């Protein structure tokens, strides 16, 4: 299994989310119930509304946001992370069992990486498809089960024919560690790694826009090359 290092990964839109949203590692952020102003750093706008996200265990987000900084999804106000989670899950967000823990970024992380990789994967798989095959692309994050029985969040590309699915490539984040993205071909995990924007936040490291662009270019170039070789050998 190939390990994707921080230098090989890329920064996507979620990098800004990770820098700007207060830590959600605890289901009860400090002083949330006493919020007077928006939780966006430097914003003192009023009124504010609590993020409406409640996870599958009944824990609420409890951060507070103004109309400008609290995205609205299907008529409900959320913080950026949980707005991303609800959009990523789509229709599956109606099932409480599909909702990650308050501090878990898995669903939205899978969607960001899938969205950014989709054009290259579509081109690659179209080129590799046989005459009787067509490409199936996920539009929502699915909830599955990891080998240990815990939940995982995933999106896939599939080459299918009337006789079934010949090739499946899946991006996955497991419940046990929401910082690691796994890339799977069929049932085999080909690569895994911690995205650099998550690692940077852990280390308190700031990166420039130029560094972000270079990490993005390097990551996708590596991943496309690696998957191209794996698919051709499948």
Short structural description:
The protein has helices at 14-20, 80-89, 106-128, 196-203, 209-233; strands at 2-4, 49-50, 64-65, 72-73, 76-77, 134-137, 142-145, 151-161, 164-174, 177-185, 188-193.
Describe this structure in words.
- The protein has one domain.
- Helices cover 31% and strands 24% of the residues.
- It has 5 helices and 11 strands.
- The chain has helices spanning 14-20, 80-89, 106-128, 196-203, 209-233, and strands at 2-4, 49-50, 64-65, 72-73, 76-77, 134-137, 142-145, 151-161, 164-174, 177-185, 188-193.
- Helix 2 crosses helix 3 (106-128) and helix 3 packs across helix 5.
- The chain is globular, with a radius of gyration of 19 Å.
- The model is unreliable at 5-13 and 17-33 (pLDDT under 50).
Structural class: alpha+beta
CA radius of gyration: 19 Å
Number of strands: 11
What is the overall silhouette? globular
Beta-strand proportion = 15-25%
Biggest sheet character: 7 strands, mixed
Counting H and I runs of at least 4 residues, what is the number of helices? Answer: 5
Helix content bin:
25-40%
Biased composition (Polar residues): 1-13
Region (Disordered): 1-28
Record the SSE blueprint:
Elements: E1 2-4, H1 14-20, E2 49-50, E3 64-65, E4 72-73, E5 76-77, H2 80-89, H3 106-128, E6 134-137, E7 142-145, E8 151-161, E9 164-174, E10 177-185, E11 188-193, H4 196-203, H5 209-233
Parallel strand pairs: 1-11
Antiparallel strand pairs: 2-3, 4-5, 6-8, 7-8, 8-9, 9-10, 10-11
């Amino acid at each position: 299994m190939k390990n994707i290092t921080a230098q090989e990964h890329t920064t996507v839109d979620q990098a800004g989310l990770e820098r700007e949203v207060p830590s959600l590692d605890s289901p009860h952020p400090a002083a949330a119930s006493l919020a007077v102003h928006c939780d966006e750093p430097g914003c003192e706008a009023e009124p504010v509304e609590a993020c409406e996200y409640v996870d599958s265990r009944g824990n609420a987000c409890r951060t507070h946001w103004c109309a400008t900084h609290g995205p609205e999804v299907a008529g409900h106000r959320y913080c950026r992370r949980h707005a991303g989670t609800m959009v990523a899950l789509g229709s599956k967000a109606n099932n409480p069992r599909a909702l990650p823990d308050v501090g878990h970024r898995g669903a939205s992380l899978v969607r960001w990486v899938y969205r950014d990789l989709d054009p290259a994967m579509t081109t690659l798989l179209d080129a590799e498809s046989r005459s009787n095959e067509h490409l199936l692309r996920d539009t929502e994050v699915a909830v599955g089960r990891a080998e240990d029985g815990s939940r995982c969040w995933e999106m896939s590309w599939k080459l299918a024919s009337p006789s079934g699915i010949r090739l499946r490539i899946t991006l996955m984040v497991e419940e046990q560690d929401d910082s690691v993205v796994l890339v799977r071909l069929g049932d085999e995990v080909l690569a895994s790694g911690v995205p650099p924007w998550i690692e940077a936040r852990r280390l308190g490291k700031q990166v420039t826009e130029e560094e972000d662009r270079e990490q993005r270019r390097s990551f996708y170039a590596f991943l496309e090359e690696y998957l191209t070789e794996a698919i051709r050998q499948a």
